[in-house]
């Protein structure tokens, strides 16, 4: 097992194939979660939220081999996740969400919820035209538990996965921020049973919740709608979203259900993922599927990506034996930003204890794994409070810039920078 050092920090390398380690930084022991990048006057700035620490951090990644945290500022005081970020057009969109929104109280407390204290919710809109001096412009409140994965690629509208007042779970909400100091709701869309006054009485474990982001492209919004599966809306008129189709995933995946629904429009297909949620292999099987959208009203699955298998360098025969979470979480999402990598025939995904996996999807009926990077076990637990799991890597979020550098967030490590070195078909 090799080690890579960045200052006093060490990242042990357990397995690697066609992926090289460029840099590692523990970010002052504040592991990063969701990430976004903007480029200003030739400098590359990565903005990130944190799962276990309040607020946001800016990392200068102009030299990816030497990432440098250059600014950190606080967010909400209590019981509020500040982990979601989007950057475009000089604006930073940060989500605010009640910690452990629909979790049983004892599990919510494991994630940091403190009974009796208030929480904040909604979205904050920041001016980051001066990258290291964020200025708060405005805020949008939901009246509910806040927002999860939101979408903003610049311009007039932000698209939220929001728990609005009167709803049992997250719905789609379009908000006009042409005047960011006074955001205005344009429209909303929900599925059956989500309204509190709906008499269908679907129990929460089976009730769909929009996980987000609602990826918006060519007049369509692609919604990863939890236990409702994957939904496409016509949003040519943002004030009047219309249902087009729904792809059901049945009982596959964790309670989260459909986690990501990303269109690959030039190929008339999409990537659909679920998310591993429960530790120690307690979920129903999670999956990553390639969906044919040549007829958007009748989506159909073309294939399911193979389950990653450890190499001979690993001391176990299955990642499920490693502990913690194992299964898909995030894929790289281009967000229509010029300095983000586009998705071609390679798909990059984080698999928690299974590290980073790279799949060739040139033939969508026969996806094959062509690369991976898996760290060894951390020497120190950075997550707070401590979840009852083995101390193992938990590769969570991923972002790839147009230079080819891969940024990874891990709750037990910090920021890892990688680069794919294998063949491209």
Find the CATH topology of the domain at 31-103 and 112-192.
Answer: Methylamine Dehydrogenase, Chain H
Distance between the termini: 30 Å
Q: What is the helical fraction, as a range of percent?
A: under 10%
- Sketch the major β-sheet: 5 strands, antiparallel
Considering the protein shown, what is the CATH homologous superfamily of the domain at 31-103 and 112-192? YVTN repeat-like/Quinoprotein amine dehydrogenase
What is Rg?
20 Å
Strand residues, percent: 35-45%
Shape category: globular
**Given the helix and strand composition, which structural class is it?**
mainly beta
Describe this structure in words.
- The structure is a single chain.
- With 425 residues, the protein is mostly beta strands.
- It has a domain at 31-103 and 112-192: YVTN repeat-like/Quinoprotein amine dehydrogenase (Methylamine Dehydrogenase, Chain H, 7 Propeller), CATH 2.130.10.10.
- It contains 1 helix and 30 strands.
- The chain has one helix spanning 105-110, and strands at residues 2-6, 9-17, 19-25, 32-40, 43-50, 56-60, 68-73, 80-81, 85-88, 91-98, 122-127, 135-140, 146-147, 157-163, 171-176, 184-189, 215-217, 220-224, 230-234, 242-247, 258-264, 269-274, 288-292, 300-304, 346-350, 356-360, 368-375, 395-400, 405-410, 415-420.
- The strands form 7 sheets. It has a 5-stranded antiparallel β-sheet, with no helix packed on it.
- It starts with a strand and ends in a 5-residue tail after the last strand.
